[in-house]
Automatic annotation (TrEMBL):
Gene3D superfamilies: Ankyrin repeat-containing domain. It comes from the Eukaryota. Keywords: ANK repeat. This is ANKR7 protein. ANK repeats lie at residues 1-31, 32-64, 65-97, 98-130. The keyword Cell division does not apply. SUPFAM superfamilies: Ankyrin repeat. The gene is Ankrd7_0. The keyword Transport does not apply. InterPro entries: Ankyrin_repeat_domain, Ankyrin_rpt, Ankyrin_rpt-contain_sf.
């Protein structure tokens, strides 16, 4: 883990801002193959997510399971972060290693608000996982 990962996980927006403004690398992976952006999303640190995206963090990197930051936002039920990621070109139909798109996850997790958001933003309603569900 980098200092940026730790600052993101703990919601230290001032440290995140300092690091990104001083050109630290935004897209390095930790031992779980997660970027600082993914860590901020996973820990529901919305301000850190916003700072990272403003400075060019890649929202489409995938962790060891193939989950992107958008998958993680959906799993945590955070519609605000999901919308922020989508506004910053997150792939709405990215599939993880099991073939799950953010929409499939939102439906399976019963996150109605995120499901509605993804549908309004044009998520593929015909996407199927690896079991053809």
């Amino acid at each position: 883990r980098t200092a940026l990962h730790l600052a993101c996980a703990n919601g230290h927006v001032d440290v995140v801002t300092y690091l990104v403004e001083n050109k630290c690398k935004l897209n390095l992976f930790d031992h779980d193959n997660r970027s600082p952006l993914m860590k901020a999303v996973q820990c529901q640190q919305e301000e850190c997510v916003a700072v990272l995206l403003e400075h060019g963090a890649d929202p489409n990197l995938a962790d060891a399971d193939g989950n992107t930051a958008l998958h993680l936002a959906v799993l945590s039920g955070n519609t605000t972060v999901a919308e922020l990621l989508l506004e910053n070109n997150a792939n709405i139909d990215a599939q993880n290693k099991e073939g799950y798109t953010p929409l499939i996850l939102a439906v399976s997790e019963h996150h109605e608000e995120i499901t509605e958001c993804l549908l309004k933003k044009g998520a593929d309603v015909h996407a199927r996982d690896q079991c053809e569900r």
